[in-house]
Amino acid sequence: MDPNMNNLLKWGIQNSSNAQQSPDSNNDGSQAPRTNVTPQMLNALFGGPSEADLMKAAMEALHSDEVDLENKLVAFDNFEQLVESIDNANNLEPLGLWTPLVELLKHKEPDMRRMAAWCIGTAVQNNEKAQDKLIVMNTMPILVSLSTEDPDKAVRKKAVYALSSAVRNYQPAMNEFVKHLPDGYASGKVDAGDMDTIDAIMDKLRAHPGPSS
């Protein structure tokens, strides 16, 4: 049996027993005990979209001409929360969502570029599989360019966040990152486990002057 269904069955039996107790048992005015029903348990009982389905639906909305910017940002916020789970982040590849996500780094709307960088940063954090995907997709130069050249400060900030998540404790990503840094940021090889040096580079990127208006 599905573990969620099993837990839900146990909950039902327990609460059925509680309901059969004497009506006087709660006359002291005490609050009824909290139950442990989770969204996953309810989903197992009543059905509903899986998190993979929600991720795909969000990405469809993000690329739809029929969805306005406000609702796209809502979809992006939901997507970012979903990829906080490493399982969902690792599902980006089999679901075919990496390419459309990276494409949004080049969107004409600053908020869309900002959210795309944010989602990437969340997905790759402490996740070597996702960190490697950024190398395969040649995403590092795009993020470096956004962090130093995007006219929107919020976009630059989230691009730095994505880069910071991408390179920590994963040397191949760090090596690729260093190749695309502007002159004066790093000389020679940078250890992906050297947090002090990484913090210094990221601080320098955050302070990088944006393009002149």
Automatic annotation (TrEMBL):
Pfam families: Fes1 (PF08609), HEAT_EZ (PF13513). Belongs to the FES1 family. Functions as a nucleotide exchange factor (NEF) for Hsp70 chaperones which accelerates the release of ADP. Required for fully efficient Hsp70-mediated folding of proteins. Residues 5-92 form the Nucleotide exchange factor Fes1 domain. It comes from Aspergillus versicolor CBS 583.65. Residues 16-36 are annotated as: Disordered. Coiled coil: none annotated. The keyword Repeat applies. It is found in: Cytoplasm. One of its GO terms (cellular component) is endoplasmic reticulum. One of its GO terms (biological process) is regulation of translation. This is Hsp70 nucleotide exchange factor FES1. The keyword Cytoplasm applies. One of its GO terms (molecular function) is adenyl-nucleotide exchange factor activity. Keywords: Cytoplasm, Repeat, Translation regulation.
